[in-house]
Structure formats: structure tokens, C-alpha cells
Design a protein that fits this description.
The complex is a heterodimer of chains A (314) and B (232). With 314 residues, chain A is of the alpha+beta class. Chain A is built from 4 helices and 22 strands. Chain A folds into 2 domains: 161 residues, no CATH class; 126 residues, Cyclophilin (Beta Barrel), CATH 2.40.100.10. Chain B has 6 helices and 13 strands. Classes of the chains: A alpha+beta (314), B alpha+beta (232).
């Protein structure tokens, strides 16, 4: 029982929640860039949060169902067609053997999550199926999806179809504000430089990928050039000598020696991951306490999503 | 030992000023290792991941199960235990075979010439030191070992190679490493280690960990090939 990949689009990767507890080997976490859209997809499908889904960046994915199951697409605004019929995002759809599923080009946002009930059943490596291309680990043989790939999954005929209330769906635009927990090295950035960082609009450069988003704007100066290499957490904002910040994301290297201002809040980094080069980012400083509150509120929100049951023939 | 906020769910335990030149030695490495053991013990299931490096340990915790006040309190309680860490009580000793030669180490001849030494002297100096594993990163299984004898220290190549063969033993400044897989790289290649340093199919996938001590044992060409070594 499986789903056949007809066209993978530019970049489609299998991802579970991420690879944890392996940093001591130099392995990064991987996992979904937009955790919110990923987790909502799992909820709609009735899955646990650690099931394996497809993260399709920029759209263009085409699949053929080879078994009966529920399918759901969340995240970026794309045109979704099943057998050439337009279908809603943030909604589970019943698919049967022979059904053709097609995602158009991503219009607003750039990361889509495509899942089936129970997720895709591929063997984990180092405790996770998250595919990290740089490491050649996870997914199917550490590679991005290619035409002809078969993604094993279970038959599921009973689960209830669900839809996320339209008002609760994230709205992706071309700009976002990222809240930042100041880190221990921020004192090496003079006050004027910090004000410049937090008051300037930043443009996402062409060098924006799953490792990190490089930003363009006024150069931010730092008292120190480099540091003894140390561990890097998710969202860490490095400022190399050219003064252009880099927000380090899911596929980041685990250690590094550039000074850091702080770390982006994960909830906001997920929204930023939906932006493409040319998008605009603003930063706002928050305390650890505020960050903690936001994480708990987000958890509550994800556990209490307005999910509406749908009739079978809808 | 200092505890510092790194992000929404990360605290850095540092044992030296990170802006100083690398003056880190086996004492800091032992402290980092002791901190890693202790952090695992006190944080249990609240712990998500640990990143040991030269003189610091990044602790990543589950912010939905606990909070930074609790994590800081529990980590502070370890201060005495960690500061007392003895460099002789931690880490294992690992011996890695190396075929040092100009055919397995493309930069060996040039490094010897620039150092004003013979190739034999370079090999002798590189294999005479017990190195400490200070950090693992850059790529899966890439271990940073220090410190190389200053007589054979060499800066990175001006132009990195597109492809460094797997197993290459290399020097950059006073660090040395074995490339666990073929990859681009700018370090000076002096030999090749036939033993796999990172194998996802094996358990454990790496024969060494941060805090271990590594010695290199020179082997000849025949022995190298017998151990499964591959010449570029």
C-alpha cells in the first residue's frame, strides 16, 4: 500500500517532527520548517505529531494514490486538485487507488505539508525519518523525493473527515515580525547596533534555505570577530563579519564560531520559513518569560483547534 | 562555570571566556563531559539534546515540560561536581590506524617542506601526541582533535578542495581530524585512516565521543589495504 510520486516539484522531503538527541554525533534536527502547519496537518488526519509527512517547498508535487486513505494539505496557499477537481486546503479528503493529486505553484507562503492518515511508513535513521540532504540521512535513502518513488502508507477507510475553520487558518503574507530572546553574547553588540537591528526592516536574501535564512540590511557591527566554536540552538541569530544576520533553522550546523545576538522564537521562525527571498522581516526583543508564555499559548491553541467534521460526500 | 541564556529552550554552560584565543585544554574538556553526564541525570526526560564543544555545553530542554527557572536551578546544583571534574577520570582512549604517505595524504610533502621537517618527522610528531576530542560537528562524525604540535601546525588551504576522500587525516592550525565521509574541505591532508569514523548502519555509529583521547598509529600500505583502506 503506498502513494506514488509522479512529480516531486522543486523540493519535496519526508519529515517527521525532527531528529533529537543526536547532536553529539554532529547530526542536526531537520524536521518541518513550519511546525505549526505540520502539526495542524497531523491533527486533521487524526495522526500523532511524530508521523511522517511530505514537506513540499514551492509547490509542484504530483502524487497517485494506490490505496484508500485520507489526504490533507496544509501550509502555503497552493491550488490543490484531486482528479482535476479543485479541493480545499486545511481539509482532509478521501482518496482511492488511481486518484491523481496535484499541487500548483505556491502563491502565498512556500512550504506545504502533504500527509496521509497514519503518515508514511519509512524506516527511521537515528530515531527519526527527517530527511536532511546535507547529511544524506532520513527520508528515502537520504534523498529528496524523485519521480517514481513509492511512499508506503496504510489503508484507512474509517477516520472522520475534518476541516479547520477558515478563521483559524494562518494567513501568509510577504512580511513577518520575529520575536527574539536576547542571548548571552548580545552585550558584544553596542547599544546603537542593537537598536539598528531591532528597528530596521530586513530583506530575505537569495541564500535562504533549510539551514538558515540570510538577511540583507544595514550592517550590524560587533565588538568581537569570532568565538571559540560552541553549540548552536534553533533560531540562533549569527552575525558574521559582514554584519548581515543569519537566522539558523532546522538543518543548521550544530556548532559554530560567529557571535550571536540571540535566538528567534520558534513559533515566529516557522512563519518566517514561509517567506521567500525578497520578503521582509522585522525583529522584536522579548524576555525568556514572554517566550515561555507564547510557547504554552501556542500549545493550547494547537490542542484546541476548531476542527469541523465533514460529510463523506462533501 | 557560568550558565547563560541562549534561546527559548537553550542554556549554555560555559567554562571559559568564548572570546579568548583557544587556550582550552583537557581540563575544560573533562568539565564539559562531566557537565553532559550531570545534565542528563538531573534533567532526565526534560532534556531534548546536548551539544558539547571546546569549553561549553549547550543544553536544550523541553520548554513545554519545564521552564528555565527550574533548569537553571537544577544545573546550578551541579557546579561543585562539574568544577571538580578531573581530566584523568573521563573519556576513553582510542587508537586509530593511519597510513601516512604522499599517496594517501596529498599535502604531506608540502606541509613537511613548509615546516622545515622531513616527512618522517611530520609523521612522528603527529603520531606522538594523545589528542583530546573537543567537539563533533561540521558534518556527522567530524571530530575536532587538539592540539597538534606547533611545529606541524598549518593554516587551512587558500582554496578548499571540492572533494576530500573519506578517511583523510588532516591538519588545520593546531587541530587535526579524520574526514568521516568524502566532502569538500580545506584542511591539509597527511594520511588516511581505514577505520570508519561514522557509519549510520553501525551501532554505535562513531568509535569516539567528545572527551575521549585519540592516538594515531602509523601503519604501512599493505596493512592499510588489508584493513579495507581505499587509496584515492
Amino acid at each position: 500500500m503506498s502513494v506514488f510520486v509522479r512529480q516531486p516539484g522543486l523540493l519535496s522531503l519526508l519529515q517527521d517532527r525532527g531528529r533529537f538527541g543526536q547532536h553529539h554525533l554532529g547530526l542536526t534536527t531537520g524536521g518541518p520548517m513550519d511546525l505549526e502547519a505540520f502539526l495542524i496537518c497531523q491533527r486533521l488526519l487524526g495522526n500523532t505529531p511524530d508521523c511522517t509527512l511530505i514537506e513540499c517547498s514551492f509547490g509542484g508535487l504530483e502524487l497517485d494514490a494506490q490505496t484508500e486513505t485520507l489526504l490533507c494539505v496544509t501550509g502555503a496557499h497552493v491550488a490543490l486538485h484531486i482528479n482535476d477537481q479543485p479541493k480545499d486546503l486545511w481539509t482532509t479528503h478521501r482518496v482511492r487507488p488511481g486518484d491523481h493529486i496535484r499541487l500548483g505553484r505556491a502563491e502565498r507562503g512556500c512550504r506545504s505539508y502533504v500527509g496521509v492518515a497514519g503518515g508514511f511508513t519509512v524506516a527511521p535513521q537515528f530515531g527519526s525519518t527527517a530527511c536532511v540532504l546535507r547529511e544524506g540521512i532520513g527520508g528515502l535513502n537520504g534523498s529528496k523525493l524523485a519521480p517514481g518513488d513509492l511512499l508506503p502508507c496504510a489503508t484507512q477507510t474509517r477516520r472522520q473527515r475534518l476541516q479547520l475553520a477558515p478563521g483559524a487558518r494562518p494567513k501568509y503574507t510577504t512580511q513577518t515580525t520575529v520575536r527574539v530572546v536576547l542571548g548571552y553574547q548580545h552585550g558584544h553588540f553596542p547599544p546603537l547596533q542593537q537598536r539598528r537591528f531591532f528597528s530596521s526592516p530586513w530583506t530575505i536574501s537569495q541564500r535562504a534555505d533549510r539551514m538558515g535564512y540570510c538577511l540583507e540590511g544595514p550592517a550590524i557591527a560587533c565588538d568581537i570577530q569570532g568565538i571559540v566554536s560552541e553549540g548552536i540552538c534553533f533560531g540562533a541569530i549569527q552575525v558574521p563579519a559582514d554584519g548581515q544576520p543569519i537566522v539558523l533553522l532546522n538543518d543548521r550546523q550544530t556548532i559554530g564560531g560567529y557571535p550571536k545576538l540571540g535566538a528567534a522564537l520558534s513559533v515566529d521562525a516557522a512563519r518566517m520559513s514561509q517567506l521567500i527571498p525578497g520578503g521582509t522581516v522585522h525583529f522584536a526583543a522579548i524576555t525568556s518569560q514572554t517566550a515561555h508564555n507564547v510557547l504554552h499559548l501556542q500549545q493550547w491553541r494547537l490542542q484546541n483547534l476548531p476542527l469541523h467534521p465533514l460529510a463523506e460526500d462533501a | 562555570m557560568e550558565l547563560r541564556h541562549a534561546g527559548e529552550n537553550a542554556i549554555l554552560i560555559s567554562f571559559a571566556d568564548e572570546t579568548a584565543e583557544i587556550t582550552v585544554g583537557p581540563r575544560e574538556a573533562a568539565q564539559v563531559q562531566a557537565a553532559a553526564h550531570a545534565a542528563r541525570e538531573v534533567l532526565q526526560d526534560d532534556l531534548i539534546d546536548l551539544i558539547p564543544s571546546y569549553s561549553s555545553l549547550l543544553v536544550i530542554y523541553d520548554a513545554l515540560r519545564t521552564d528555565h527557572f527550574s533548569v537553571l536551578r537544577r544545573l546550578r546544583g551541579l557546579r561543585h561536581q562539574i568544577d571538580a571534574a578531573d581530566k584523568n577520570t573521563s573519556g576513553r582512549d582510542v587508537i586509530l590506524p593511519v597510513y601516512y604517505s604522499t599517496e594517501s595524504g596529498a599535502d604531506l610533502e608540502q606541509l613537511a617542506r613548509k615546516s622545515g621537517l622531513t616527512i618522517e618527522e611530520v609523521i612522528r610528531l603527529h603520531s606522538a601526541t594523545a589528542y583530546t576530542v573537543y567537539a563533533i560537528g561540521f558534518a556527522p562524525g567530524f571530530a575536532y582533535l587538539g592540539h597538534v604540535d606547533s611545529r606541524i601546525a598549518a593554516p587551512r588551504l587558500a582554496t578548499p578542495r571540492q572533494r576530500v576522500p573519506r578517511g583523510s587525516v588532516a591538519i588545520a592550525d593546531r587541530q587535526t581530524a579524520v574526514y568521516p565521509a568524502a566532502s569538500p574541505g580545506g584542511w591539509n591532508l597527511i594520511g588516511n585512516c581505514p577505520q570508519r569514523l561514522f557509519d549510520p548502519a553501525q551501532s554505535p555509529s562513531m568509535p569516539i565521543a567528545v572527551g575521549d583521547r585519540v592516538c594515531f598509529m602509523p601503519i604501512d600500505r599493505q596493512h592499510f589495504l588489508h584493513l579495507g583502506g581505499v587509496l584515492p
